[in-house]
Amino acid sequence: MPITPTDKIWMNGELVPWDEARIHVLTHTLHYGTGVFEGIRAYETDRGPAVFRLTDHIERLFNSARIMLMEIPYTVDEIVQAVKETVRSTGLPSCYIRPLAIYGYGEMGLNTLPCKVDVSIACWPWGAYLGDDAVTKGVRMKVSSWTRHDHNTMPPLAKTTGNYVNSSLAKVEALKAGYDEAIMLNPEGLVSECTGENIFAARNGILVTPPLAAGALPGITQDSVTTIAHDHGFEVSVDNLSRSDLYICEEMFVCGTAAEVSAVNSVDDRVIPCPGPMTEVIAREYAHAVRGQVDKYKEWCEPV
Ligand code: PMP
Known about the structure:
By secondary structure, the protein is of the alpha+beta class. It is built from seven helices and 17 strands. It has two domains: 8-124, D-amino Acid Aminotransferase, Chain A, domain 1; 139-289, Alpha-Beta Barrel (D-amino Acid Aminotransferase, Chain A, domain 2), CATH 3.20.10. It binds 4'-deoxy-4'-aminopyridoxal-5'-phosphate. The site of 4'-deoxy-4'-aminopyridoxal-5'-phosphate has 13 residues, from helix 5.
């Protein structure tokens, strides 16, 4: 999806003009995929633009860095404030936000320990990732021929830039085959997640989502959706799913910051009732929650 530039990008402590946010071709992370990043959204609320679960996202960024033994030269709170400053500088009522911490220019070779860490934060307007009608019409999913890397290959709990080689291979394969998104199975053949979303599938009226051990990222939308589901009296179980569980499920949706809550209408051409009744309720409530319109979830919205 094309990027619409905004005015400024935060780089190592200051806001620089969009076109000047450049790096050297010998930047370490560009060669080895060792960066860590986040994908966050700010929404328009009656208190002005507010970033959805900003602190949770920045804590996950720091956890990704810990897994990589990367020392981000700022505190969580400093990056939280920097995100707010960057969003404010755009003047946008809502936007997508991309914080990135990379090993910078100055060292080569696989040892990251001597490398300096550069941090940037960019924002731009970004629509629904899986399409505007993903909630109502649903998306077509394909089980990927690519296997999700396991915990001892590329740590799936860390949102590293390199991990997305696996996701990109799967995404492009699915798109070229005429599907909207790919489902990743782990080396044991169990469902882990999509290329950029977590999965929920209903079995016997219970919403099942795969455990982190299955190779999924700890999704913040997954966590929000679980709370919303409980608050609506829907049972949620964290349990393994096989591809056949998906083929015969009663309803299914995928969720992530970019995709929000998107209904699924088929998996490998097995039709799934769509949008399912729980999916509809959860998608609607999530859309209200992120905009600060639900009192009990207001603390999730962090005004800039
Ligand atoms: N899994 C992967 C692989 C992702 O890239 C994302 C998006 N960050 C998610 C799940 C969903 O995470 P979140 O809800 O925190 O955006």
